[in-house]
Amino acid sequence: MEWPSQSPGLNLIEQLWEELEKCVFGIRARNADQKCSQLQTAWAQIPQSLLTNLIQSMPRRCQAVIDS
């Protein structure tokens, strides 16, 4: 069986990490606990609509990979 190629377009966590990076960009943390707290706060502030849009886009993303 062939190993399937990597499909970054199907990895939603990458887009969520990008959103988190935008939220905490430029905010300094003194230690790992403070950075973790900043990330948790940013995670809680991600709009539900963004999560919904990412989930709802999966059929289109899957089809685009199949078409490619």
State the distance separating the first and last CA atoms. Answer: 20 Å
Q: Helix count, per DSSP?
A: 4
Rounded to an integer in angstroms, the radius of gyration calculated over CA atoms is 16 Å
List the uncertain runs: none
- Strand share of the residues? under 5%
Going by helix content, strand content and strand pairing, the class is mainly alpha
Name the overall outline: elongated
Largest sheet: none
Spell the H/E element sequence.
HHHH
Organism: Caenorhabditis japonica
GO molecular function: nucleic acid binding
Protein name: Tc1-like transposase DDE domain-containing protein
InterPro entries: RNaseH_sf
Give structural notes.
InterPro entries: RNaseH_sf (IPR036397). By secondary structure, the protein is mainly α. The protein has one domain (13-67). The protein has helices at 12-24, 32-44, 48-56, 58-67. The radius of gyration is 16 Å and the shape is elongated.
Task: Please outline the helices and strands.
Elements lengths: L11 H13 L7 H13 L3 H9 L1 H10 L1
Spell out the key features of this protein.
4 helices; elongated; nucleic acid binding; mainly alpha; Tc1-like transposase DDE domain-containing protein; 68 residues; RNaseH_sf; 0% strand; single chain
